[in-house]
Specification:
By secondary structure, the chain is of the alpha/beta class. The chain is 41% helix and 12% strand. The chain is built from 15 helices and 12 strands. The strands form 2 sheets. Strands 2-8-7-6-5-3-4 form a 7-stranded mixed β-sheet, with helices on both faces. Strand 5, helix 10 and strand 6 form a beta-alpha-beta unit. Helix 13 packs across helix 15. The longest helix has 36 residues.
């Protein structure tokens, strides 16, 4: 008796056929978003569509995924996915703290899909485990400058931050691994401009969001260290156990950098775990010109850094870096002999990487970073970061000369986003009305996708634009066109 299936009967031939049809579609998609191409279409960014419209495009009530589709139907769907998605390869994508993928990034994602392995234990992902340890250590050494440091990847900056909180609790109070929080009344400290993942972490670990104490910031969104000291002393008198300070390298709204050296001294004085959320701005470490923004980061107990943001590595790629890499296992390891077989290779280095995390399934995002670093080198990453800063600074200089623009927050932005109002005297509408109208209209025109935000502390003046300059294909010409487009759309409100 023969038991067999006709599914995937010739895998390589099937893949070759699909890739042959897919490749020209992908190349055209990217080419239309390249200002240097003769096929460039500014509107290739894509326009806004309501969810109802998109449901009609993709959901067939007569065939609710119960039958296989034809090859023709498959590529019709793929074409619509490309048509109605936001094209992040277009330089008009200025909305979020990441930009497009890049050619080597596509290759790395393809390789990971081909390998389709789980980088949780060495036996099934030997190469990827070795490379993650290697690149994690090399990355961490940029910050900590020692031989004991290292890093692992997690599924986004939030999970890196949350994991750092778990590590802080396990290392400072090992009994919590078994007994939970018990009688401890832990306190967490962060700035009023921090990322929401700090509160999410407190909720997830059973600490409660009300035990996250938001410290005052100055007019530039930078944590006030004197206020931090006062809050710590106050909470200690109230019976709290200070556990964790979160500082930020590149806040989400203003892009501000907290004073890490001063904060590290406060943390050491009170025996508090000092974490830096560098998800956005941590990668200035690659730039000799801008890395001084990270002065004092070498004294951190943990650092989150996301190569998928400033460095253009494919989403997602987030590292948690520690000055003592062994602390991953110290904080996280459990007895699971059915999975983790110990260091049978006789090495002091852990290659069963999930033994240092709270999860099990792990895509080897570190490989994408390794291949990108190999391809571009440190010099290439530095060039990318410094180009982005030059574009951001050019934009700031350009709008300063126009009285209808007003920069919000730091007048000399520290990271790659610029917050500003556009409010001509001839327009009798609120800041929020103008900002939302212009932002939506630019997207509907398919020219630019820009974000907006209220002030995290004081939103009385209304929402402002927050534009992120991150892509290596941005130029002064595109910046000039953006400013002209904002002014042109704004005239519609007169």
């Amino acid at each position: 008796m023969t038991i067999e299936s006709n599914l995937e009967s010739n895998r390589s031939e099937e893949l070759d056929n699909l890739l042959t049809q897919l490749e020209p579609r992908l190349l055209a998609y990217i080419d239309e978003a390249d200002p240097k191409s003769s096929n460039y279409k500014p509107e290739s960014l894509g326009t806004f569509h309501e969810p109802k419209f998109l449901k009609q495009q993709f959901i067939d009530p007569d065939n609710d995924l119960d039958k296989p589709c034809s090859e023709e139907e498959l590529f019709e769907t793929i074409d619509k996915v490309l048509k109605f998605s936001v094209n992040t390869w277009n330089p008009g994508f200025l909305d979020k703290l990441y930009a497009s993928n890049n050619p080597i990034g596509v290759i790395s994602d393809i390789l990971l899909s081909i390998l389709n392995t789980n980088s949780h234990v060495y036996t099934v992902s030997p190469v990827l485990s070795v490379l993650e340890n290697y690149i994690g250590k090399k990355y961490a050494q940029l910050f900590f400058h020692n031989e004991t440091c290292g890093g692992l990847t997690f599924s986004g900056g939030s999970w890196s931050n949350i994991t750092s909180l778990q590590i802080a609790r396990s290392l400072k109070y090992p009994d919590t691994k078994v007994k939970g929080n018990g009688n401890y009344k832990f306190a967490l400290y962060t700035s009023k401009h921090c990322h929401y993942s700090v509160e999410k972490g407190a909720i997830l670990l059973g600490l409660g969001s009300e035990n996250v104490f938001k410290v005052d910031v100055d007019e530039n969104g930078v944590m006030d260290v004197d206020s931090l000291k006062q809050v710590i002393e106050k909470t200690k008198k109230e019976g709290y156990t200070p556990l964790y300070i979160n500082a930020t390298a590149g806040t989400t709204v203003f892009g501000s950098y907290d004073p890490f050296l001063e904060i590290s001294k406060v943390a050491k004085e009170h025996n508090i775990h000092f974490h830096i959320d560098g998800s956005w701005g941590g990668n200035v470490i690659f730039s000799p010109k801008y890395r001084d923004r990270l002065a004092g980061s070498e004294y951190a107990d943990s650092i989150t850094v996301n190569p998928h943001k400033m460095l253009g590595i494919p989403n997602t790629c987030s590292f948690l870096l520690l000055p003592q890499v062994a602390n991953f296992q110290t904080a996280m390891s459990l007895k699971a002999p059915y999975l983790f077989h110990g260091r049978e290779l006789g090495s002091d280095e852990n290659y069963d990487l999930a033994d240092g995390t709270m999860g099990c399934g792990r895509r080897s995002d570190a490989f994408k970073f390794y291949l990108g670093w190999l391809y571009y080198g440190e010099q290439g990453f530095a060039k990318r970061v410094e180009h982005a800063y030059s574009i951001m600074e050019y934009f700031v200089q350009s709008i300063r000369s126009n009285p209808n623009f007003e920069i919000v927050g730091p007048q000399s932005p520290q990271c790659l986003q610029v917050c500003f109002y556009y409010h001509p005297a001839t327009v009798k509408k609120s800041n929020t009305e103008i900002t939302r109208y212009v932002s939506r209209k630019l997207h509907k025109l398919g020219k630019y996708l820009v974000d907006f935000s209220p002030n995290p502390v004081d939103d009385t003046q209304g929402e402002f634009f927050r534009v992120v300059f991150n892509s290596p294909i941005l130029s002064d010409k595109i910046v000039d066109e953006l400013i002209a487009s904002i002014i042109s759309v704004g005239k519609e409100l007169e």
